[in-house]
Amino acid sequence: MVNSEENVQEKSCSGCGVKLQTQDKEKAGYVPKSALAKDRIICQRCFKITHYSEVSPVELTDEDYLRILHSIGDSRALVVKIVDMFDFNGSWITGIQRFVGNNPILVVGNKVDLLPKNMNLNRMKNWLQHSVKEMGLKPLDVLFCSAEKGMLIEELLQTIDHYRKKQNVYIVGATNVGKTTLINQILKKVGVQDNELLTASRFPGTTLDLIEIPFEDGSALYDTPGIINRHQMAHYISTEELKTVSPSKPIKPKVFQLDEQQTLFFGGLSRLDFVQGDHQSFVCYVSNLVTIHRTKLEKADELYSNHLGGLLSPPGENQLSTWPKMKKHSFKIKAEPTDIVFSGLGWVTLKGSGAYVEAHAPEGVTVTVRKALI
């Protein structure tokens, strides 16, 4: 138990791993002196996240991430890389092999509960294996789970135990892929009570340092801070708007039958112009709370100029002064099922007639094409 202010800085927050301090309310790790007598101490930021869904923006530097990642490469361990199946491209960490050295890697696709209910897991596994290989990674295996719903956790635990061979396990991934929620599911499986779980939320950057969870055999499971992929939409919108953009329920695809010279707006966050091609369906996979507007391409600029922050929201009116300019990305889509992916927002599937499209997203947000997931 911590019972003196002198040794508080030797302790870490039980929720997010950050070093504790009692001096500055505005800095990470702040804890009131009155809380020091408790057996389990969490920082004020974790307390607000847990009880009020209120998050203070604390961001680690790139040097912090490099320090943590290199510590993985310096040890012998199993690395479990978590990706978000709703935002696979946005949540992918490039160059992870450079940091983890020769350590073996498992890839786990989380948030499968958010995909349409008719998804075939076997087909999706083939898609994930193909996509991971294209990204230049050769994992031991790929698996799926829903940390939020507790789906497929037992299978994942058995696989981790099989491959770790009594070595440490590091859970790594981009911000908001569900690493901490997954670890909490693992802790529940071994009997840890709810009031002793790690702090988890939908907000990026909740975990701020390594959190060690000992195994009975002397090794440990480590939760790591989420690596910030700055090309994701989440880093351009407010925490309140993130609740709209990040789905919490299974996606209900929205189908639009479009002729060329028509446009789809996804709130005011992005737009997709069907410039040229045969009449065809555009199947949209975004959060059910994001409103999609269809208009003629010739009217798209005017609609965006006059209604951004109102009819076209998010972003809201209070964000317009800092909202980035839209950048255009042009794609010639082949005659095969293809996804046009807006990093952190979702994707649009074209079924295979071929088309020329132009996608617009805030400057800094990545737009890519890939083999259709569904």
Automatic annotation (TrEMBL):
- Name the domain of life: Bacteria
Q: Output the SUPFAM superfamilies linked to this UniProt entry.
A: P-loop containing nucleoside triphosphate hydrolases
| InterPro entries, per the entry | G_CP_dom, GTP-bd, GTP-bd_ribosome_bgen_YqeH, Mito_lipid_metab_GTPase, NOA1/YqeH-like_C, P-loop_NTPase
CP-type G domain span: 63-230
Q: Which PROSITE patterns does the entry mention?
A: G_CP
Among NCBIfam families, the record links this protein to: GTPase_YqeH
For this entry, the protein name equals Ribosome biogenesis GTPase YqeH
Q: Which organism is it from?
A: Caldalkalibacillus horti
Lineage in the entry? Answer: Bacteria, Bacillati, Bacillota, Bacilli, Bacillales
